[in-house]
Amino acid sequence: xxxxxxxxxxxxxxxxxxxxxxxxxxxxxxxxxxxxxxxxxxxxxxxxxxxxxxxxxxxxxxxxxxxxxxxxxxxxxxxxxxxxxxxxxxxxxxxxxxxxxxxxxxxxxxxxxxxxxxxxxxxxxxxxxxxxxxxxx
Length: 137
Description:
Blueprint: H1 17-39, H2 43-56, H3 61-73, H4 77-95
Pfam families: BTAD (PF03704)
Protein name: Bacterial transcriptional activator domain-containing protein
GO biological process, one term: phosphorelay signal transduction system
């Protein structure tokens, strides 16, 4: 869900360290929630919010890696490869560096089975409830 930046209605607060920290913590909380959804087999439901969040933070490698993992878990390998190429290009152009190996779509950390993620579920199956993460095992 979109929301205005922290204290956006107060003049002169844009660079305030407290505002910067609050924004960073909010982004981390959103990333953690989306990562939990991917692990619980709901990768398809994370794709739209992850696209928006990665557009806001194009140089956040852990966030970009999560989007790539979600794309793979949703069965969108071609899009995952394109997302990786976009990240690689952005990092090369802006920071003259390459993405960390953990961001590559062919590495285990970007595999849909990494970090305890469950294998992809058949199309049309209902999402797992948060209270039963092992119900498919």
